[in-house]
Write a structure and sequence with these properties.
The protein is α+β, with helices and mostly antiparallel strands. The chain is built from three helices and nine strands. The protein folds into two domains: 67 residues; 123 residues, Sandwich (Immunoglobulin-like), CATH 2.60.40. 39% of the residues lie in helices and 29% in strands. It is elongated, with a radius of gyration of 26 Å.
Length: 195
């Protein structure tokens, strides 16, 4: 769910709560006109308004916190449905990635349905850009479609990816992974076609 969706939902909830409070106060005035002294209704209204205001401020602070600490990874090159060579450098942008997390690029051949992590994690630049050298299929895969998947891996996921790569290299058998490692998050997938 995007940040703007969360904000819209919160605004709708706060507005609904305000409308409910006004309706309750109106019904109370109509039902018990003799008990509506000059002090009771304004006090209740003040307390309920204060609660709504505190809730609104709390929600906005929470959303600001989320926007500053939510990681994001975007693939800028190649673009979706682009024709690519066997070896390319994938480029993109990132933000809010901790020191214990790494960006990995996986290739997912649509005819095989396995994930193939590339040889190393992406190189992160201080300006929020990243790049990764990848291999899209074999020499005879011209015309085949591949997904390029940007993954954010925590420390344990990175260990699992590195273990797979080490074992595959030792056995000279890159059999692929059926799923991305537990704890890793997919951020963007694009589809390319091999030249």
């Amino acid at each position: 769910m995007s940040e703007s969706s969360i904000v819209a939902i919160c605004v709708a909830l706060i507005s609904s709560l305000s409308a409910i409070i006004c309706k309750i106060i109106d019904k109370t005035k109509r039902k018990y006109p003799e008990k509506n002294t000059k002090t009771k209704i304004p006090n209740i209204l003040f307390i309920l308004s204060f609660i709504v205001a505190i809730s609104s401020v709390g929600t906005l602070i929470y959303l600001q916190f989320l926007s500053k600490h939510t990681p994001d990874i975007v693939i800028n090159y190649p673009t979706d449905n682009e024709y690519v060579e066997k070896t390319i450098v994938v480029k993109g942008r990132y933000k809010n990635i901790s020191k214990n997390e790494k960006i990995w690029i996986f290739i997912y051949p649509l005819k095989i349905n396995h994930y193939y992590p590339q040889n190393t994690s992406a190189e992160l630049e201080a300006n929020g850009k990243w790049s990764s050298l990848i291999y899209v299929g074999q020499d005879n895969d011209i015309g085949q479609r591949f997904n390029i998947v940007a993954i954010l891996a925590n420390k344990n996921s990175t260990i699992e990816i590195e273990d797979y790569l080490r074992t595959a290299k030792d056995k000279q058998d890159w059999y692929g992974m059926e799923e991305i490692p537990e704890g890793a998050l997919k951020f963007q997938t694009i589809t390319v076609v091999r030249k």
